[in-house]
Amino acid sequence: MEPPAYVLEFEKPLRDLTRQLDELRQRSIETNVDLAAEIHAIERKIETTRREIYSNLSPWQKIQIARHPKRPYALDYINAICEDFQELHGDRQFKDDQALIGGTAYFNGDAVMIIAQQKGRDPKERILRNFGMPQPEGYRKALRLMRMAEKFRLPVITFIDTPGAFPGVESEARHVSEAIATNLREMAILRTPSISIVVGEGGSGGALGIGVTNRVLIFENSYYSVISPEGCAAILWKDGAAAPKAAAALKVTADHLESLGVVDEIVAEPLGGAHNDPAQAAGALKYALQKHLNDLRALTLDQIVESRYERFRHLGVYEEAGAVKS
Question: Domain count of the chain?
């Protein structure tokens, strides 16, 4: 027997209609009564309700989809759009961080370097992957692989999906802040094309540690934020229950990020989220990645570094106050 489907709170009206449809179909079979008209009416209502729900999602609801346990993770996309992924292990200083993986692969026949934050599906894998929260050695491994990519002139593709870097005592003792800061500096001057894609959660410096790239893409129902909505709510409203209000204020969803210039393209998802049709989501990602790789390959190495600098230099706005007259 299959486990019950994971249903978000705002999806419950849709679940109830689906149950009604299943009951009608079963009754039609058991009683041998033609209920085609009733079944068709429910099917139309399900389709209408589905479009109403998913076309008017709030920022908090999109964040819930980004955290959906059935959502495709980095390895799902890597296996779907790449060939011959060869994972490379270790930071050559401490250990191999399973929350941040990387290695070489072929993308549409061309060699690339993949770096990705990976979550786990079941409890055992979640613990192994540390719930997708890298430690310092993960970021140092990522930097080692990026430097290898630069040496062999391989484009770098990073998959962002983390609630944040691991904040534990051991992580701090091994200088996670320094590891992330070093990555920010070194990625900014990396002499090879780079693209990042936010496939789920993009949490704070933990995400940015592999996100300083020439192009930043984001899936439609993913988010990218300096702090989690729960953390923001706890600080500003002293109440974690204010997370939906914080999510709206932070402007963390794909449409807001694109309008602010933080991301370069939104990758469309199937209705209801990438978990409803992973193959379609992977196909959309593959198309977007190839388009941006083609653009970047047309640039010289100096132009690649300069364009990356200009991209991040122009994020945000500021105002200059006029001189105060004496």
Answer: 2
Q: Contact at 8 Å (CB) between 211 and 196?
A: yes
CA distance 295 to 261: 18
- pLDDT score of 133: 96
Q: Which domain holds residue 41?
A: 9-56
Sequence-ordered list of residues with C-beta below 8 angstroms from that of 228, at least 6 positions apart, any chain: 163, 164, 203, 204, 243
Shared domain check, 140 and 39: no
DSSP 321: P
Phi (first) and psi of residue 151, to 5 degrees? -60, -40
Tell me whether residue 25 is exposed, middle or buried, using C-beta atoms within 10 angstroms of its C-beta: 0 to 12, 13 to 18, 19 or more.
Answer: middle
Check whether residue 101 and residue 52 sit in a common domain.
Answer: no
For residues 42 and 172, membership in a common domain is answered with no
| Terminal alpha carbon distance of the chain | 81
Average pLDDT score over the chain: 93
Would the pLDDT of 280 be above 70? yes
pLDDT at residue 7 in the model = 85
